[in-house]
């Protein structure tokens, strides 16, 4: 299955290019707003991704920034692609942030998970148990839609060229009996199976490793095929908040943390053996 362009990534690239052109012209947000007849808040919302931009609005900015014919063609195409709908738009009610759109075009996904198995490797029954625990007031239809969205995400791993997926998994994530021993046995077996996939590496961070570089919780680093156009993003989430971090300082901090976690974890072969042992212990 081929990779398709992500509207979320195209929208991010568009707003970065608009900011670059504004800086290149030496214009402030206030100056741009005055020259095109907008409120300054509109310029800020467009550059920060909180608001889209119409074809007419884009033409006004490109004319103001004196964009070349090539730049105008490129950015007009980006805007058109950004207005398209990704498959995840159909699940907007149960996918509350843009993460899936950013994940969709990643060339490499590096993630540390401290409490549960990452979504791309979850079995349906494990995912159902997680959702029921976290959405105590959800009705059956909502739970079904969350499950469907999570299953749809897994198309990433079926691509002709899948993203490189590197997971560091805290031992707690495989020791906790989510859904009961039977569900957990199937889930751990699924991780063992994933360890055989060429694009997937799994390392277990054992309890014996003690304190580590991400005691604060889980995070994911998303790298792209063209980093000059699409710089790395770090995604940090918990039960009450999600953050997408893009600054070089944040990215360097989390990349260093991930390197430390990999160094403390069991190597991939040892991890596969460890997981196989856990799966066997869960069998009746």
From TrEMBL:
Q: Which InterPro entries match?
A: Cro/C1-type_HTH (IPR001387), DUF5753 (IPR043917), Lambda_DNA-bd_dom_sf (IPR010982)
Q: Which residues form the HTH cro/C1-type domain?
A: 18-72
> What are the protein's GO molecular function terms?
DNA binding
- Name of the protein described by the UniProt record: Helix-turn-helix domain protein
């Amino acid at each position: 299955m081929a990779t398709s362009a992500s509207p979320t990534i195209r929208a991010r690239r568009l707003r970065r290019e608009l900011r670059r052109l504004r800086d290149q012209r030496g214009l402030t947000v206030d100056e741009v707003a005055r020259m095109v007849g907008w409120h300054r808040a509109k310029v800020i919302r467009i550059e920060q991704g909180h608001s889209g931009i119409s074809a007419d609005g884009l033409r006004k900015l490109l004319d103001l920034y004196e964009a070349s014919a090539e730049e105008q063609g490129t950015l007009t195409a980006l805007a058109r692609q950004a207005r398209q709908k990704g498959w995840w738009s159909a699940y907007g009610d149960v996918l509350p942030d843009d993460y899936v759109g950013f994940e969709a075009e990643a060339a490499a996904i590096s993630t540390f998970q401290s409490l549960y198995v990452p979504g791309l490797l979850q079995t349906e029954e494990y995912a159902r148990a997680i959702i029921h625990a976290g959405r105590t007031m959800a009705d059956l239809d909502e739970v079904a839609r969350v499950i469907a969205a999570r299953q749809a995400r897994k198309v990433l791993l079926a691509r002709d060229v899948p993203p490189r997926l590197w997971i560091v998994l805290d031992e707690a994530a495989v020791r906790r009996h989510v859904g009961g021993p039977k569900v957990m046995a199937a889930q751990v077996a699924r991780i063992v199976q994933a360890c055989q996939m060429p694009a997937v590496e799994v390392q277990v961070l054992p309890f014996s490793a003690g304190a580590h570089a991400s005691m604060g919780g889980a995070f994911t680093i998303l790298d792209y095929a063209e980093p000059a156009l699409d710089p790395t993003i770090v995604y940090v989430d918990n039960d009450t908040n999600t953050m997408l971090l893009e600054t070089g300082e944040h990215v360097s901090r989390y990349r260093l943390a991930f390197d430390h976690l990999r160094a403390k974890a069991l190597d991939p072969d040892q991890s596969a053996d460890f997981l196989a042992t856990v799966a066997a212990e869960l069998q009746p």
